[in-house]
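[User]
Um, tokens okay?
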Amino acid sequence: MPIKISNIFIVLLLTALLQPCVYAKAKTDKVHIKSDRVEMNYKTGVTRYIGHVVVTSSETIATGSKMLTEQNDNNKLSQATIFGNEAHLTIKDKKDPLYAKAKIIKLFPQSHMIELIEHARATQHGNSISAPRMTYNTKTKVLQSESTKKSQAHIELLNHPSA
């Protein structure tokens, strides 16, 4: 049976729940999660954050209406899934900041992968790409799109004039 916890206890649980996480670049970087409600199931390793979810760290901001996190047998985060009409993800890299949105955003910290699912859109350096589904490798910084029979990827490139 899930345990209901108020926001006061969320900060105390962050270190155990989300370390190491794709949101946090350094091991000492703290991850903060705010939501209207939290349900933790210690037996399954699944935690549900419900209502106005905001995840912040020094490197990342993610928002959505709901988030599920899953821990593996070693008590490490294996997957975080953010849901919303438009779930948002910002990776604050000084050289290559990435702004992304989709209905579903899946984060896989162990493999450095992010999946953007349904109405996915990502913007980097003023260039944007829209597709039904995309993947982004946070280590190699490679963004790949996938199309379907009904919809193709669409790219908008910013024209940089020569100096």
